[in-house]
Amino acid sequence: MGKGDKKTKRGKINRGSYGVRRPRIKKKIRPEEKISVDKKAKA
To answer: Where is the composition biased (Basic and acidic residues) (predicted)?
Structure first.
C-alpha cells in the first residue's frame, strides 16, 4: 500500500489520475461573477 497502489489516494496522486478515492474538485460559481460588476459601479 502506498505510492504504487492504484486504489489509494496517494497512488492516484503519484500516477496523476482520478477516481473514487481522488475526485476532481469542482469550482464554485461566485455570486459576483453572475451579476455584472459594471452595473454596481454605475448605480
So the answer is: 30-43
Higher model confidence: residue 36 or residue 26? 26
CA distances from 34 to 8, 25, 42 (A): 37, 20, 17
Report helix, strand or coil for 18: coil
Give pTM, 2 decimals: 0.52
Q: pLDDT digits over 29-43, tens only? A: 777 666 665 655 555
The residues spanned by each domain of the chain are 1-42
**C-alpha Rg value of the chain to the nearest Å:** 20
- HSE-up of residue 43 (Cα within 13 Å, Cβ side): 5
